[in-house]
C-alpha cells in the first residue's frame, strides 16, 4: 500500500490557474460592489473560475484528483471567468441559481468550508449577495 501511495504522487494533475483576468469575468462585466466581490473571490472563485488558489495539500494524491474533479464540476455549472460570454438568458438563470443556492446554504460546499473557514457565508454575506443579485435580475 505504501508503494502505491508513493507511486501515485508522481501522477500529475492539471492546475486551474491563470494570471489573466478575461474581459468576460463577472467582475469585468458588472459593477460588483467590493463587499460582494470579496465574498465571491473568497467563497466561490476557487471552484467557479479559471484561477484556483491551491492549498498546500493539493500536491498530495488522491486529494489532488478529488479537488480537480470538484473544480471541473464547479466550472461546468458556473464559471465566473466566462460569465460575460453567457447569453443574457443564461446569465439570468445563473443569477437565480446563485440566489437559490446561497439562500439554501448549498454553496459553498460544506467540504470546502471545512478546509476554508473564511469561505463560510455569514447572514450578512448572504444578504449582500441576495441584494446585489436581485438588483441584477431587476435590470
> Average pLDDT value?
89
Amount of beta strand: under 5%
Total domains, how many?
1
Question: How many helices in DSSP terms?
Answer: 7
Whole-Å distance between the termini? 57 Å
Class by alpha and beta content = mainly alpha
For the largest beta-sheet, the strand count, sense and barrel status come to:
none
Order of helices and strands: HHHHHHH
Count every beta strand, where a strand is a DSSP E run of 2 or more residues: 0
Please tell me how large the radius of gyration is. 16 Å
Q: Tell me the helix content.
A: 40-55%
Poorly predicted tracts of residues? none
Shape category: elongated
Characterise this structure:
It is a single chain. The protein has 139 residues and is mostly helical. It has one domain (2-14, 23-138). It has seven helices and no strands. The chain has helices at 2-8, 26-29, 34-43, 63-77, 88-103, 110-115, 123-138. The protein is elongated and about 60 Å long. The model has no long low-confidence stretch (mean pLDDT 89).
Amino acid at each position: 500500500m505504501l508503494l502505491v501511495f508513493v507511486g501515485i504522487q508522481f501522477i500529475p494533475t492539471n492546475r486551474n490557474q491563470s494570471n489573466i483576468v478575461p474581459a468576460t469575468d463577472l467582475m469585468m462585466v458588472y459593477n460588483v460592489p467590493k463587499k460582494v466581490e470579496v465574498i465571491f473571490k473568497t467563497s466561490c472563485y476557487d471552484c467557479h473560475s479559471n484561477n484556483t488558489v491551491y492549498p498546500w495539500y493539493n500536491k498530495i494524491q488522491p486529494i489532488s484528483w478529488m479537488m480537480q474533479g470538484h473544480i471541473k464540476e464547479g466550472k461546468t455549472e458556473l464559471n465566473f471567468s466566462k460569465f460575460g460570454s453567457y447569453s443574457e438568458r443564461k446569465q439570468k438563470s445563473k443569477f437565480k441559481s446563485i440566489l437559490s443556492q446561497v439562500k439554501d446554504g448549498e454553496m459553498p460546499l460544506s467540504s470546502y468550508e471545512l478546509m476554508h473557514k473564511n469561505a463560510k457565508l455569514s447572514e450578512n454575506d448572504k444578504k449582500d449577495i441576495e441584494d446585489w443579485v436581485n438588483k441584477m435580475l431587476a435590470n
